[in-house]
Amino acid sequence: MRVPTSASVQVIHEEAGWLACAKPAGVCVHDAVEGADDSLAALLRGMLGADVHPVHRLDRETSGCVLFAKSSGSAAELQRCLRAPSTAKRYLAVLRGRLGEASGTWAQPMSARAGGRSNPLGRRAERVRASTAFEVLSRSPHLSLVELRLVETGRCHQIRKHAAFNRHAVIGDARYADPRHNRLVREKLGFPLMALHALELELTVGGQRRRLRAEVPESWKPLRAAFGDEWAVDRC
Question: What region holds the Pseudouridine synthase RsuA/RluA-like domain (predicted)?
């Protein structure tokens, strides 16, 4: 996978103490090791010529909206804003199979640790409350385009774990999905990524309500062929 350059990192909103950008899939938010130059934080430092502080995480494989602060003080304030009950996170995913329900909530408890394909929810003794709301936007014969929202909780890999446990894994998910199905998607659709995108983040900062949106990336275009006229991304 091509590592983006600073020129290809899209800043979608910027204020005096912070900014939001659209993270490409395949890029870590944080520096994996000190001095690394391929994380999103490092790319932004190169673009802005100043230090930035990641405020929250997205998995390497997930694309979408990420917040960065321009100082440690701003980072602490934004983290408080993210924890507010009024904060809302909206995701899009393409899941394996046709979901039978038009909408619903997955509420199976799960471990706060990363899991695996055979037991996505983790050890029973470690499971804690987790809730993910979903709404099906469109269906193809073998896939579903779904909007998802984290309800009060935001556990490690929460959407990915809930989807896999409920037999509708995120396509391209190397940790939780069936590798044979992932290979089929790569070969038939030419889509080598994981189809999970952080579309919108809505929160209140400094008394002002902000709705931050990272449009679905161009890399999702191969998925359009599987849905045809049912492709609903443009209407999200």
Answer: 19-164
Longest dimension (CA), the chain: 50
- What is the CA angle 91-216-117, rounded to 5? 50
Q: What is the pTM of this model?
A: 0.92
Average pLDDT for residues 86-110, to the nearest whole number? Answer: 96
Residue 58 belongs to domain with CATH number: 3.30.2350.10
Q: With cut-offs at 50, 70 and 90, classify the pLDDT of residue 32.
A: low
Q: Can you tell me the distance from the alpha carbon of 209 to that of 34, in angstroms, rounded to the nearest whole number? A: 35
Question: Both 51 and 79 in a single domain?
Answer: yes
**Is residue 78 domain-shared with residue 90, that is, in the same domain?**
no
Q: Minimal CA–CA distance to 5: which of 43, 62, 51?
A: 43
- In this prediction, residues 96-111 reach a mean pLDDT of 96
170-185 pLDDT, tens digit each: 999 999 999 999 999 9
Find out whether 139 and 145 touch, Cβ atoms under 8 Å. yes
Say which residue, 231 or 133, is predicted with more confidence. Answer: 133
Q: What are phi and psi of 43, to 5 degrees?
A: -65, -40
Tally of structural domains, the chain: 2
Distance from C-alpha of 56 to C-alpha of 21, rounded to nearest angstrom: 12
Domain span holding position 23:
1-83
Instruction: Dig out the tokens for 117 from the structure.
Output: 């394909």
Q: What share of the chain is helix, strand, coil (3-state, %, to 5)?
A: 25, 30, 45
